[in-house]
Design a protein that fits this description.
CATH architecture of the largest domain: Sandwich
Order of helices and strands: EEEEHEEEEHEEEEEEEHEEEEEEEE
Radius of gyration: 19 Å
Shape: globular
Helix content: under 10%
Number of strands: 23
Distance between the termini: 19 Å
CATH superfamily of the largest domain: Jelly Rolls
CATH topology of the largest domain: Jelly Rolls
Largest sheet: 10 strands, antiparallel
Length: about 290
């Protein structure tokens, strides 16, 4: 089995742009160099994705580059178990962010400055004072933030980051800076947000090892440096490599491909050991 470079699906939005590096979503798939969509590959050859995804109806992850040229809306995502809010076909969304670049003074907004009641949250949305309650974090490259579903959040202007998330587009928007799109305000989802948002301060805990986050949905590691790195794609999961610094050569299964900053590479489950040579850093994501 050989590693496959993926071509990202590009998305232009009111606040900037996204590159969907690992996506199997309908009409928004990343594709192999042969032009095969990741979703089609998942349907045709599920063995390439590993035993952990064997019971998944849909491909479970979505990985993006997000380029925020303006502030993103303040929003929240539900959990899978929030069935009282989710509509048919919708799913929860836990995610994490690795900061690739940030303009001076750029910020992320996560959780609340102090615990707040649901009534206070609703009132702050209604009277336009929500941002007075939201906690702001100055950011710089190499920062990492983990957002379990239910965390109120927004990406500020001037932040460029990699996002690893559950494969879901379910978003409840509560504030959008009074912007207009096509002459009208964007839709808000206040009732749903009130039902799922954690009304507590966000606790930022920077990682202390190469493992940035590990949970039941995904594991994200930062690998590499001047001497490259070696790793393994086991039978239970594929590995997604997103090159975030430098360039190098990826070798596995008697195949070698050149990679550079910005590349997204899919390594099939069961490939075994692979080796990156060159001064290269990657985010390695698996189930």
């Amino acid at each position: 089995m050989r590693p496959m470079k993926l071509k990202a699906h590009e998305v232009k939005l009111i606040w900037g742009s996204e590159a969907w590096l690992l996506s199997a979503r309908a009409n928004a798939e990343s594709t192999t160099e042969a032009g095969l969509g990741l979703g089609e590959l998942f349907a045709r050859q599920p063995e390439l994705f590993g035993t952990k995804s064997a019971d998944c109806k849909d491909f479970p992850l979505l990985i993006k580059f997000i380029d925020a040229r303006d502030d993103l809306s303040v929003q929240v995502h539900p959990r899978d178990e929030d069935t009282h809010v989710l509509q048919p076909g919708e799913a929860g969304k836990t995610e994490c962010w690795y900061i690739l670049d940030a303009a001076p003074g750029a910020k992320l907004y996560l959780g609340f400055r102090e615990a707040i009641t649901q009534e206070q949250f609703a009132q702050a949305i209604a009277d336009g004072t929500l941002m007075e309650h939201v906690q702001a974090f100055d950011v710089r490259p190499d920062d990492f933030f983990y957002m379990p579903a239910g965390t109120l959040h927004a990406i500020g202007k001037g932040v460029f980051l990699a996002e690893v998330q559950q494969n879901s587009d379910t978003t409840y928007r509560v504030f959008d800076y009074n912007r207009l799109q096509n002459g009208a305000p964007r839709e808000l989802h206040v009732d749903q947000a009130l039902a799922v948002t954690k009304l507590v301060p966000y606790m930022h805990v920077p990682p202390t090892s190469e493992v940035l986050v590990q949970n039941e949905m995904f594991t994200v590691r930062k690998l590499g440096g001047a001497d490259g790195f070696s790793d393994k794609a086991k039978e239970d999961s594929f590995v997604s490599l997103v090159i975030i610094e430098g360039a190098g050569k990826l070798s596995c299964s008697d195949e070698s491909i050149a990679v550079r900053k910005g590349d997204s590479v899919f390594i099939p489950a069961g490939t075994g050991e692979y080796r990156m040579t060159g001064d290269c850093v990657a985010l390695a994501t698996s189930l």
